[in-house]
Amino acid sequence: GENVEQHPSTLSVQEGDSAVIKCTYSDSASNYFPWYKQELGKGPQLIIDIRSNVGEKKDQRIAVTLNKTAKHFSLHITETQPEDSAVYFCAASRSGTNAGKSTFGDGTTLTVKP
Amino acid sequence: SQTIHQWPATLVQPVGSPLSLECTVEGTSNPNLYWYRQAAGRGLQLLFYSVGIGQISSEVPQNLSASRPQDRQFILSSKKLLLSDSGFYLCAWSVLPGTTEAFFGQGTRLTVV
User: Fold this and answer.
1) Which is nearest to A62 in space by CA: A71, A45, A74?
2) Is A2 a residue whose pLDDT tops 90?
3) CA distance B108 to chain A (A)
4) For residue A110, what are the CA distances in angstroms to A68, A87, A114, B10, B94?
């Protein structure tokens, strides 16, 4: 089955700096890679996703890159703000299954210091 | 618009007592439904998923069971809770076909004492 590894497990940055979270996956057939943000005591919410036919996707301060050959994808947050502090999860799934059955990474706790 | 409701938000139960967590989805038909457990500082472990009424797939052996009595209702149950059942339980839904995002509920914090 699919295995997703996520690094780092914790990340602390100064407000205004950039944050990068990296994930690797094992199943070369995976073609959908969402990123979720989970605030304390709440359920995860999708912040950005990328499909395997795209190498990079950007939405304001958030971007995701995908390297299919190396089987890794990364989340980039620029100009971080204190409200970006949360746990971030990457996930991977493939066509024929569905996003809810994705394999999730163990999460990265991001702390943005004001 | 679609919404997902999960309750209760917190629950404290004694060891050996039964459990029933409920999840309902509004605004969509025939969703795929999921139950996840999240241990402290860890990722999401898929417990059960359902692609239709009465259709339940279990991902890991455990002390829990799931049922889907209606199209948009998903229930997580246990006859006798164990201490190890403590955790944060999340219900989620997604749409087929293809791969789309999963929409999560707000979660239930279960503490077995």
Assistant:
1) A74
2) no
3) 9
4) 25, 6, 13, 25, 26
